[in-house]
């Protein structure tokens, strides 16, 4: 996915930059689904409450939430204004823009201002965005902050990134196939991916497959077609039952339940990702 009009320098790292609206607070928490990208959620006002679904006591209240790669659903809610700005970053984007390897954020949610090497232009984003009066202003403020982060961390991040590794995993169904494409052993691939991104190659492929299914479910719902069996086949699942099992494990609900409560017609949320 590309972001229209964004600086070419940010294109390898920023996959989404959008406004969001979680809908009325009475609608309950928004379910943040697993994804092959990291996300940054910046409420327009106040704080965002985030907890891992099914894990009592895991909740945190943050001014700007950074979620690493995760294989379980999160729950997001805002008490007052439910709008804000939402970004997703490719895994290399964590090091290039925030100065923190994606492996340090995997399975975690942190406050943007608390990241060890974050630049002031990014740490102060919530306050700068609160002063904006239009989406154009908010977008410009975010882009300036990201470019400042890239100027500080980009060269160092580029040296440690294994180019093509994630692309090979995304294009293949099995880790062995990706290793063969890359000309390395499975062990070397596993050590590289876990060390840089905090997940195993197999887990990353699960995230890619799940994300593909979510996108096709949304497209099918917008077209008025259920098509779960077709979505399962097109996304690399063995069958519809396999798709449903994986959704229960990773989203905490079935695809049909998610579409009913979080789908395109339910609320204007940030595409189901945390």
TrEMBL record:
All copies of domain HTH araC/xylS-type, residue ranges: 159-261
Coiled coil regions, renumbered to chain: none
Pfam families: HTH_18
SMART domains in UniProt: HTH_ARAC
Keywords: DNA-binding, Transcription, Transcription regulation
Domain of life from the UniProt record: Bacteria
Full protein name: Helix-turn-helix domain-containing protein
Species the sequence originates in: Nonomuraea spiralis
């Amino acid at each position: 996915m590309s972001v229209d009009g964004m600086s070419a320098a940010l294109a390898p790292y920023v996959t989404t930059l959008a406004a969001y609206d979680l809908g009325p607070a009475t609608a309950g928490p928004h379910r943040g689904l697993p994804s092959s990208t990291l996300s940054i959620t910046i409420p327009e006002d106040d704080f965002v409450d985030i907890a891992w679904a099914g894990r009592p006591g895991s909740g945190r209240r943050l001014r700007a939430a950074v979620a690493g790669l995760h294989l379980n659903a999160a729950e997001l809610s805002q008490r007052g204004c439910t709008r804000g700005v939402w970004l997703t970053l490719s895994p290399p984007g964590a090091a290039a823009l925030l100065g923190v390897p994606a492996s340090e954020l995997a399975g975690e949610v942190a406050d943007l201002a608390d990241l060890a090497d974050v630049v002031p232009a990014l740490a102060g984003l919530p306050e700068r965005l609160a002063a904006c009066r239009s989406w154009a202003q908010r977008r410009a403020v975010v882009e300036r902050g990201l470019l400042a982060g890239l100027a500080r961390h980009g060269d160092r991040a580029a040296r440690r990134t294994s180019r093509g590794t994630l692309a090979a995993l995304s294009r293949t169904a099995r880790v062995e196939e990706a290793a063969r494409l890359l000309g390395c052993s499975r062990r070397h691939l596993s050590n590289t991916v876990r060390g840089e991104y905090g997940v195993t190659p197999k887990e990353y492929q699960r995230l890619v497959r799940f994300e593909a299914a979510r996108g096709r479910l949304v497209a099918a719902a917008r077209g008025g077609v259920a098509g779960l069996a077709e979505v399962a086949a097109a996304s690399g699942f063995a069958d519809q039952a396999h798709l449903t099992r994986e959704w229960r494990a990773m989203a905490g609900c079935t695809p049909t339940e998610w579409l009913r409560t979080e789908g395109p017609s339910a609320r204007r949320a940030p595409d189901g990702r945390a």
